[in-house]
Amino acid sequence: MAFITNEDGDDLIVSFATPIDESGDVKSLTLLRTPKYEFALDESERGVNVLGKMFIGRSNHDYSK
Q1: Model confidence at 63: pLDDT above 70
Q2: Is 28 exposed, middle or buried (0-12, 13-18, 19+ CB in 10 A)?
Q3: Domain ranges in the chain?
Q4: How far apart are CA 17 and CA 7, in angstroms?
Q5: What is the pTM (predicted TM-score) of this model?
Q6: What is the CA angle 58-20-60, rounded to 5?
Q7: Which is higher by pLDDT, 20 or 41?
Q8: How many other β-carbons are positioned within 10 Å of the β-carbon of residue 9?
Q9: What is the pLDDT of residue 34?
Q10: What whole-number distance in Å separates Cα of residue 43 and Cα of residue 53?
Q11: Residue 45, SS3?
């Protein structure tokens, strides 16, 4: 794990980054939840959002669901 960070407040955020290989390429994963505003969302849209990216060379690739 290259780093782990978390933030709190109105949004709950936890982020992870792991190296893919020795070239410096990185995968990141961010988990985001906004409980303060979930009441306004459809039930199917509530909960944790998963955001993922791969940083390869100078480009980044989104692999979020």
Answers
A1: no
A2: middle
A3: 3-62
A4: 15
A5: 0.64
A6: 30
A7: 41
A8: 7
A9: 87
A10: 26
A11: helix
Q: Are 38 and 29 in contact (CB under 8 A)?
A: no
Q: Is 47 helix (H, G, I), strand (E, B) or coil?
A: coil
Q: Beta strands 59-62 and 26-33: pairing type?
A: unpaired
pLDDT at res. 42:
92
Rg of the chain taking only CA atoms, in angstroms: 14
Residue (of 53, 46, 51) closest to 65 by Cα position:
51
Query: Can you tell me the distance from the alpha carbon of 46 to that of 62, in angstroms, rounded to the nearest whole number?
Result: 21
Which pair of tokens denotes residue 34? 């906004």
Q: Which residues contact 53 (CB under 8 A, 6 or more apart)?
A: 27, 28, 60, 61, 62, 63, 64
pLDDT at residue 65, rounded to an integer: 44
